[in-house]
């Protein structure tokens, strides 16, 4: 037969095993399980029966609001010699840009690397200059302006030389070929 110690040891092991298995379930109480509520997204939303309609208007003729284009009148004598009929021919006059002879730009530098030119332009724009880039013959030119005040741009050349270290050239602004 087994000794008292062995009986107590087996009894203790059984009690501890029951305690480890049963007690957590008893002490937890009522278990709650959370389920995420999943809402399905409809493939095609349902529309109300009231459909909005919009009226598309025809474009208006706005040519009457424009000023008439300048016309040069040329009087040409008629080919017939026996009558005094004179033919009047209207030829449109090419329009001149008002800034064509009075605007100026500063060509600051020409760089091979367009990214470097863009960085210089961003820096100058942050400092308040009207800076632009122009791609020409494989170079990216950094241009300041245009401005109608030649003296203002001449002062800016000195300031820009201090900022960038390059001396710019003052050039006439050509609006059709900037």
From TrEMBL:
InterPro entries: Cell_div_SPOR-domain, SPOR-like_dom, SPOR-like_sf. Residues 98-173 form the SPOR domain. GO terms for biological process: cell division. Keywords: Cell cycle, Cell division. This is Cell division protein DedD. It comes from the Bacteria. The keyword Cell division applies.
């Amino acid at each position: 037969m087994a000794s008292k110690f062995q009986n107590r040891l087996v009894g203790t092991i059984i009690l501890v095993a029951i305690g480890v298995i049963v007690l957590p379930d008893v002490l937890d109480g009522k278990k709650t399980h959370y389920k995420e509520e999943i809402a399905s997204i409809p493939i095609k939303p349902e529309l109300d029966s009231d459909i909005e309609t919009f009226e598309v208007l025809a474009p208006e003729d706005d040519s009457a609001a424009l000023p008439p284009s300048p016309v040069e009148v040329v009087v040409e004598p008629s080919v017939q010699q026996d009558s005094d009929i004179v033919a009047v021919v209207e030829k449109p006059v090419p329009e001149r840009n008002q800034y064509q002879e009075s605007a100026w730009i500063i060509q600051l530098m020409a760089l091979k690397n367009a990214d470097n030119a863009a960085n210089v332009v961003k820096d100058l724009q942050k400092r308040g200059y009207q800076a632009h880039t122009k791609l020409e013959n494989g170079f990216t030119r950094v241009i300041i302006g245009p401005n109608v005040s030649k003296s203002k741009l001449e002062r800016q050349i000195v300031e820009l030389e201090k900022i960038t270290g390059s001396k710019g050239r003052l050039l006439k602004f050509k609006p059709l070929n900037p």
